[in-house]
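Quick check before the chapter quiz. The format below is the same one you will see on the exam, so make sure you can read both the input and the output lines.
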Amino acid sequence: MRALKPNKRTRDQENYSWAMDAAEGSVAINAPIAAVYQGWLAFEDYPKFITAIKRVRRLDANHFVASLGFNGKQYDTTLEMILRVPERRLAWRTLAHHHAPDHFAAGVVSFTPVSDQSTCVTLRLTSSFGGAVSNRVDKYLHNFKRLIEESIRPSDDA
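Here is the expected output.
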């Protein structure tokens, strides 16, 4: 078996764009770490804060199909959860398939308690889907912060 050099493309890859972009961002959320972690585990809520995701369908405990919208195009991709450390870290990646063989994304989200009622969330995202990843990371984190803080805010009826 012959190994390929890391930066050498095979003939099949020549027609695909492999440009990767990566970014990291953090946000402080006024909520306990357990609530923040559980919020990120609610995959069906991803379209509420990750604007590129239009729908999520669970396949099993670690695999999901996500319908994504980038640059006016729709993509369906399979997401695989590759690491879960409760209330500390989650990591995922997309799996290549015939619908979007030239696109890849991976991410790690870390949760750090700041106090009993405050959590720092750090998101690292790598993507070949295009667009300014740093702007998307910032937007996703602020959308998530708003979603979590609104969900735990005491109602006026109480």
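If your answer matched, good. The longest strand covers residues 73-85.
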